[in-house]
Amino acid sequence: MPALSHRITTLNGDGSDGWDVFYRARAMIADGVPVTELTIGEHDIGTDPSILKAMYESALGGHTGYAIVPGISALRDEVAARVEAQSGVPTRRENVLITPGGQAGLFAAHMAVCAPGDVALFVDPYYATYPGVLRSVGAVPRAVETRSSQGFLPQRDVLKAAVEAATSLLINTPNNPTGAVYPRATLHDIAEVVTAQDMWLISDEVYDTQVWDGAHISPRALPGMAERTLVIGSMSKSHAMTGSRIGWIVGPEDAITCLVDLATNTTYGVPGYIQDAALFGLRTGLPLEAQVAEPFRRRRAIAERILASQTVLRMIPAQGAMYVMLDVRATGMNGEEFAFALLDAHHIAVMPGESFGRSAAGHVRVAMTQEDSRFKAALRTLCEFASALAKAG
């Protein structure tokens, strides 16, 4: 057959896409092997029945045809009001584009600000798709490395050294995979650096309802940042609507106008009945968001108690999101070796830190996505396994 494009064949760079443990776990499940999956950020509670009912009634009522590409006006208004209430930044529907999930929003945002060959920065550790997204728009990915000992927060001197000739910086707070919630001081450092370099900041805020310590601050709220920031939001984590594929980009009106043109030529919008369900979910208010987030708050406390009873694994402070990061280097293994060994020995699947970049090497990410008793049992087994490895030398 004719050759495929260089862009599509190099999305993963020179290595794997980081999902090898997940794929093996799913293959084991397909073969009938019971596996406790603590890999992906998939809620165990599912989408609230009231949201599904709203989706069903909308579809039954006929909202199954083409929906307006920027998003239905009522939903754009609701997102704008939500973002303004959270950030304090005046926000109108013209600042909002509805997208098929946060992932599509990340692609579109970088397509808007990066020309082919532009250097696009992202913070390491990172969500596994980030480098591929940057390559897919023709940008050159460049990691800004962080340290476990510093809570995986980007440091000002490292940022300043990385931004030369860069066009954009992608951050994620609350952070997947580390659980870090960027404090105001870190965000001020980021704002100063990107402003001095006249860069775009793309802020992935899909975990903004899952904050256990501190407070979520959108960098768009900092002085002078609204004009150079594109915020990615989503219903996936806040309302357990992962499969519904609905999110948004919030940014300057001129940028959103151009992004609407991109959506017209790519996704052609989001189905209306899904938008109606999202609108219903947002209008339900904060109690539903708190209900969706509560299992992860509870399981973080479980994880803290279990990890405090042993000395081999070090838990990175989990300030937000639905994961805990564990430093497994005292076992003598790196993250990938530990994850594969745990899966083979105990049929428990976690994600290797190496899936999320060099900074997370020697760690594993544990998703808090099983009901409490099963999560507790799996985490205890994981700790016992790590202790046995450490004793064996």
UniProtKB/TrEMBL annotation:
Any one GO BP annotation for this protein: amino acid metabolic process
User: What is catalysed by this protein?
Assistant: L-aspartate + 2-oxoglutarate = oxaloacetate + L-glutamate
Sequence ranges assigned to domain Aminotransferase class I/classII large in this UniProt record: 35-373
Q: Which GO terms describe its molecular function?
A: L-aspartate:2-oxoglutarate aminotransferase activity; pyridoxal phosphate binding
**Listed InterPro entries:** Aminotransferase_I/II_large, AspAT/PAT-like, NHTrfase_class1_PyrdxlP-BS, PyrdxlP-dep_Trfase, PyrdxlP-dep_Trfase_major
Q: Which cofactor does it need?
A: pyridoxal 5'-phosphate
* Top-level class of the enzyme under EC nomenclature: transferase
Instruction: Give the record's keywords alphabetically.
Output: Aminotransferase, Pyridoxal phosphate, Transferase
One Pfam family in the UniProt entry: Aminotran_1_2
Gene3D superfamilies in alphabetical order: Type I PLP-dependent aspartate aminotransferase-like (Major domain)
What are the EC numbers?
2.6.1.-
What family is reported? Belongs to the class-I pyridoxal-phosphate-dependent aminotransferase family.
Protein name as it appears in the record: Aminotransferase
Q: Which organism is it from?
A: Marivita cryptomonadis
